[in-house]
Design goal:
The chain is an alpha/beta fold. It is built from 15 helices and eleven strands.
């Protein structure tokens, strides 16, 4: 006889409820009070889950699943700095990067970062020939590129005092495009690599050093800065020690934009804007830590994906931002979700008996409407779509449907 755990039974009930309601139309689900019950305000965002495929029974079974899988306990382990990264036996502490009082070591690192940012923007730190830096070339790949690139695209001012460019692809054409129109004599190069051993990043950094050397000669190193957990490798490359900023081993690259990895963005945006960016993320952390599951925006959004993926067998999800500034959001989410949640091995080392993360894709609306919406409207597969709308310049609305 098979012994079923509480979580196994919760999964079975969720799957049964989803299957029973599979053929219900959205118009049938939109009962009075549904929008109120399935909408949450959190950290300046409005999250509307009422157009998700939940039946009332399916939603109740989803909350049961959250309870029986002890999602609250796992959340508390995260914020309690317990070693939830079992493969490396360490805590996962990207949330600390966003706290107003992150502790002495992180606070000291943040103060040092802020001083460098302010000095660059004020002209106290200058290029080799004494001119002010007018551009930053950010070199990284994966989590060391996607997050900062998204933040800059989303928040950049109309007329930037300091321009940001990004080089990630090892194809030399990408480096040529990133540096086109820039003057190396007034450009700071920021290399971001946790190990400082990533081949693509080192290849582009080699191109950058040659580009600088052709313009400023032996003073090229004074145009370099780095963010890394390997300061000794940075030193061997010739990056001055006072230009190397630490990257914690307890922070994965895809979660690192709130750390010194965001240095380039902080220089381009200014510390006041970057600090507000940190504060917004911290506000969501506070909500996530304190809200009950039935009113917890991150938990409910995750539950919607579990319901679609595991309950209804929907293997992909589209994210459509109706704001051009957020055009890179789907690309960032691809790495964040598919690299984090797409694995087939569970925490105990066993293989998952269920499908894991869906494939995430997307492009900005309205351009995507003229590209692949025909499949979404008339194709043979049901593809859940998350619509991201900017309500005004100071707020955004997330409408999940």
């Amino acid at each position: 006889m098979i012994e079923w755990s509480a979580s196994d039974r919760a999964w079975a009930r969720l799957e049964a409820a989803a299957e029973a309601g599979r053929d219900q139309r959205l118009s049938e689900l939109m009962t009075p009070g549904r929008v109120r019950r399935l909408s949450v305000r959190a950290a300046g965002l409005h999250v509307d889950l009422s157009r998700q495929a939940f039946t009332d029974e399916g939603f109740r079974r989803g909350l049961d699943l959250i309870r029986d899988c002890d999602v609250v306990g796992h959340r508390d382990d995260l914020f309690g700095s317990r070693h939830i990264n079992l493969t490396e036996d360490r805590a996962v502490e990207h949330w600390r990067l966003r706290e107003p009082d992150p502790g002495p070591e992180l606070a000291a690192g943040r103060d040092r970062l802020r001083s460098f940012v302010d000095d660059i923007r004020a002209g106290a730190v200058r290029a080799a020939d004494g001119r002010r830096f007018k551009a930053v070339l950010h070199i990284g790949i994966g989590g060391s590129d996607l997050g900062p690139r998204l933040v800059w695209e989303a928040l950049r001012p109309g007329r930037a005092r300091i321009e940001l460019r990004f080089a990630a692809n090892v194809d030399p054409d990408a480096f040529a495009a990133a540096t086109r129109g820039l003057d190396p004599r007034s450009t700071l190069v920021v290399a971001v690599s946790k190990t400082f051993g990533t081949l693509e990043t080192l290849a582009n950094l080699g191109l950058a050093r040659a580009w600088l050397s052709n313009a400023v000669g032996d003073a090229a190193d004074s145009h370099l800065a780095a963010v890394s957990a390997s300061p000794e490798r940075c030193a061997r490359f010739g990056i001055p020690a006072d230009r190397v900023f630490p990257m914690s081993d307890s922070v994965g690259g895809r979660f690192s934009v709130w750390s010194a990895v965001g240095l380039s963005c902080a220089i381009g945006l200014g510390w006041r804007v970057f600090s507000a960016f940190l504060a917004g993320a911290h506000a969501m952390d506070v909500h996530f830590r304190s809200a009950n599951p039935e009113r917890n925006a991150p938990m409910l959004m995750a539950l919607a994906q579990v319901y679609n993926r595991n309950g209804l067998g929907r293997g992909s999800r589209a994210v459509i931002p109706y704001a051009e500034r957020l055009r890179l959001l789907p690309a960032w989410l691809q790495q964040l979700e598919m690299e984090s949640n797409g694995k087939r091995v569970r925490r105990d080392g066993s293989l998952s008996p269920r499908p894991t993360a869906p494939v995430v894709f997307g492009e900005p609306g309205t351009t995507s409407q003229h590209a692949f919406f025909q499949l979404l409207h008339q194709g043979t597969d049901v593809v859940p779509v998350d619509f991201v709308l900017a309500a005004d310049r100071g707020a955004a609305t997330l409408a999940n449907g």
